[in-house]
Amino acid sequence: MSLRHALLGLLSDRPASGYDLLKLFDTSLANVWPATQSQIYTELTKLADDGLLSVSNEGSRGRKEYSLTDEGLAELRHWLTETKPKQSVRSEILLRVFFLSVLTPEQRRGYLDNLAAISAEQYDALRRLYDSMDWDEGNLSVQGKIALEYGLRFVTMRREWAEWAAEQINQG
Amino acid sequence: MSLRHALLGLLSDRPASGYDLLKLFDTSLANVWPATQSQIYTELTKLADDGLLSVSNEGSRGRKEYSLTDEGLAELRHWLTETKPKQSVRSEILLRVFFLSVLTPEQRRGYLDNLAAISAEQYDALRRLYDSMDWDEGNLSVQGKIALEYGLRFVTMRREWAEWAAEQINQG
DNA sequence: GTAAACATGTAACAGGTTACATGATTGT
DNA sequence: ACAATCATGTAACCTGTTACATGTTTAC
């Protein structure tokens, strides 16, 4: 049920509409907790029904601005402090590694080389994002920086691992 | 649809029953692509219907042993070489980082310290698994080793990052 | 006027989880 | 005899994705 909490979290910074939130998901949370337009609108309605959000303003074009209620903030805090994050484990990339033996040595090597290359590209993309960020807007800034650093370290680790694995498999 | 391919992959090594596969998921693939008993049995039936598997043997207690068909092997190879793995991005751990600002400095610090501690424990657990493994059984051995190395590097990276992040947040 | 952006909502489907339900065989 | 393990199957529910559907406002 983390989508709920992602919405509560974003609204803890400032009130926003479904449309605003959609864009926040597509930018700041895209690589952490993606969500679709459909999901966001459905969940906002439920959250308001449950009293965790309130419609604080209605604008033109049917725009509804949601605000976090006291109950919503309490729920957000409860989630952060009293529940354990479950680490999602599923990795299709790693799953494939298990079955590389059905391929030729060249194909195996190709898979890992490609993985290293992709990781290197992702590093560059994150690096560019890092450099282009305006590191001074709202509460999400410090945390955004920390999350980006995680991404940079992660793709670096994966590139190095893929390079190492390509060597290992070459010997086999 | 990776569960399909995980099953095909495991059966590329040797024929097995649903029950056998369930245990393979709970051991070798537990940290890569978990699956429930319910899911496995349902999918095996579908795969046999689709001709990618065949029931190669029926044993006592209703045991059905499945084998990969030529078509199944072709599908596995196709998946490995012609389709792109989609990297699952969702990370509840990272999502929480974004919203730490609603907590007190002590609570924030506690979250990251705990994350570092958990990562260190996971390192030890993987290390023990690594040391206890019999590195000489079947085709999955080399790949299993490579996957474990990934796990070791990943939790190390996460511990170091959490330690670094705790410092960053302390300054803010 | 018309295209782009704003803005919301719903329906069908796919994948995964939990729980229920049943029965056979082996080891002590 | 009894418990543990082997062995399979189904139903209800939850989450997430894709596609459909509609209408308004702004900028050129």
Task: Walk me through the structure.
2 copies of one chain form a homodimer. By secondary structure, chain A is mostly helical. Chain A folds into 2 domains: 2-82, Winged helix-like DNA-binding domain superfamily/Winged helix DNA-binding domain (Arc Repressor Mutant, subunit A, Orthogonal Bundle), CATH 1.10.10; 92-171. In chain A, 66% of the residues lie in helices and 8% in strands. Chain A has 7 helices and 3 strands, in the order αβααββαααα. A 3-stranded antiparallel sheet of chain A has the order 1-3-2. In chain A, α2 packs across α3 (37-49) and α6 packs antiparallel against α7 (140-171). The longest helix of chain A is centred in the last third of the chain and has 32 residues, at 140-171. The termini of chain A are far apart. The model of chain A has no long low-confidence stretch (mean pLDDT 93). Chains A and B meet through α1, α4, α5 and α7 of A and α1, α4, α5 and α7 of B. The structure holds a DNA duplex (28 and 28 nucleotides).
